[in-house]
Each structure stands twice: as C-alpha cells, then as structure tokens.
Amino acid sequence: MLCFGLAVLAFLGIDPPAARGTEALALDEAALVARSEAIVHGRVRARRCRRLPDGRIYTEYAIEVFEALKGAGRPGTTVTFREWGGEVDGIHYWIPGAGRLE
Q1: Residue 6 predicted with pLDDT over 60
Q2: Residue 19 domain flag
Q3: What is the pLDDT of residues 16-70, one digit of tens each?
Q4: What are phi and psi of 84, to 5 degrees?
Q5: How many domains, in total, are found in the chain?
Q6: What are phi and psi of 74, to 5 degrees?
Q7: Residues whose CB falls within 8 Å of the CB of residue 43, separated by 6 or more in sequence, listed in order
Q8: For position 102, what pLDDT does the model report?
C-alpha cells in the first residue's frame, strides 16, 4: 500500500516530505568521562531553552558548583553547558534516553 501511495505521488509530481532526524551516539560512563571537559556536583540554578535557525532546540544550564570532580569549576562558582533537547513555543525536542536536569 505504501509503495502504491509513493507511486501515485511520484506520478502526480509531488515529492513526499523528507524525514528529518538526529542520531545520538550512546556512550558508556568511561567514554563520557574521557570526553568531558568538566564534571561537577552541583545544583541547577538556571535553565533556558533556545531554538537554532535550523530548528533544532537545545537547553542551556547554569550549575552552581559544590564539588569539582574533573576540570574547571571551583566550589561556589557557576558552570554552564548546553544539551540537545528542550521545549520552545510548544515544540518539544528530546533525545530518548537522555537525562533531564531539574
């Protein structure tokens, strides 16, 4: 049935819409640690979602550092980072399996 529908669309000169997707590489804990610039224990102080011109959405977090386990970030300072996913203007974009910080 799907092939018939695509054949009809092709016959009519109508292209079906292209599927858009994102591929996220699942990493184990050791790989995440190796690739991380900084690892901290802290509290989320701010969270802001934004949309890029191409439509992708990311969330920027500001974390108050309690303890630095790797890299930059001293207790009492704030570190920021971005992660794919979020919600802007009622549009949700999440990567399955990704954590959410509150």
Answers
A1: no
A2: no
A3: 555 556 566 777 889 888 988 888 999 999 999 999 999 899 999 999 999 999 9
A4: -60, 140
A5: 1
A6: -105, 155
A7: 63, 64, 66
A8: 75
The parent domain of residue 57 ranges over 36-94
Is-above-0.70 flag for pTM? no
- Which residue, chain included where needed, has tokens 């669309």? 9
Cα separation of 40 and 67, whole Å? 6
| Structure tokens, 65 | 């550092």
Token code pair at residue 51: 């949309």
Asked if 30 and 65 count as a contact pair (C-beta separation under 8 A), the reply is no
Q: How far apart are CA 86 and CA 59, in angstroms?
A: 6
Evaluate whether residue 20 is within a structural domain: no
Q: Residues 6 or more apart from 22 whose CB is under 8 A from it?
A: 56, 84, 95
